[in-house]
Specification:
The chain has 237 residues and is an alpha/beta fold. It has nine helices and eight strands. It has an eight-stranded mixed β-sheet, sandwiched between helices. Helix 5 links the parallel strand 3 and strand 4. The longest helix has 14 residues. It starts with a helix and ends with a strand. Pfam families: Methyltransf_4 (PF02390). Pathway: tRNA modification; N(7)-methylguanine-tRNA biosynthesis. One of its GO terms (cellular component) is tRNA methyltransferase complex. Catalyzes the formation of N(7)-methylguanine at position 46 (m7G46) in tRNA.
Length: 237
């Protein structure tokens, strides 16, 4: 590993998310009170240096990081389906994290930990190089207006940072229902020298939709509104 792999000093002038209200339902508040101290932490509260994932989970296992877990509809099911991995979810929206804990509780999920805050700060300052088995970014905010495209999460700098944190053979899996954003994702990922498109030989370079990725209400809405969902699967070389 060379020196450039050890530190990717990526800084943004804008963030890809907006701060929303934090009012929670009674059930969400109860889930937060029951589980947050054990299952969650604020990114800003992490000690300096790489997160000790093995200690947090109490075991050594492949680490999957999902960026932007939303209300947890997909995340809880994915974590439940992969008990053999240590599943990290990072999200800024507090009620969404509370709802995710509710869903995980109902499914009996034990291999999930939550981080609240900026995923870029987490990756840059607290995830060791070449330590992740997979990074998943499903339906990130598309920021559809052209003047807002600079706020999109998937940019050359963020993809380079993610690639540096993936172990060799690790996977970056993206999905979006916005054609313009999908094309941007494809262009940016193909330009990253540490990544290889697993489906470069498929039409357009798009990956087939994996059967194991749950269909959310947002994806159903996209289909209803005539938008095509694109998956991209890139591998760390």
């Amino acid at each position: 590993m060379n020196a450039s792999d050890q530190q990717v000093p990526f800084r943004r002038t804008v963030v890809s998310y907006v701060q929303r209200g934090e009012r929670m339902t009674v059930g969400q508040q109860r889930a937060w009170d029951r589980h947050w101290a054990e299952l969650g932490t604020e990114v800003t509260a992490l000690p300096e240096g790489p997160l000790d994932v093995d200690a947090w989970f109490g075991r050594s296992a492949p680490v999957v990081l999902e960026i932007g877990s939303g209300m947890g509809e997909t995340t809880a099911q994915l974590a439940a389906a992969q008990p053999e991995v240590n599943y990290l979810a990072v999200e800024v929206y507090k009620p969404g994290l509370a709802q995710l804990m509710l869903r995980a509780e109902k499914l009996g999920v034990t291999n999930l930990r939550l981080l609240r805050g900026d995923a870029i700060v987490l990756l840059r300052d607290h995830i060791a190089p070449e330590s992740l088995a997979e990074v998943r970014i499903y339906f990130p905010d598309p920021w559809p207006k052209k003047r807002h495209h600079k706020r999109r999460l998937v940019q050359s700098g963020s993809v380079a940072l993610i690639a540096s944190r993936l172990a060799p053979g690790g996977v970056l899996h993206l999905a979006t229902d916005w054609e313009n954003y999908a094309e941007q994702m494809l262009e940016v990922c193909e330009a990253e020298p540490k990544l290889r498109n697993r489906y470069a030989d498929e039409p357009g370079g798009w990956a087939p939709r994996p059967d194991w990725r749950p269909i959310t209400k947002f994806e159903n809405r996209a289909h209803d509104e005539g938008r095509i969902v694109h998956d991209l699967i890139f591998e760390r070389v």
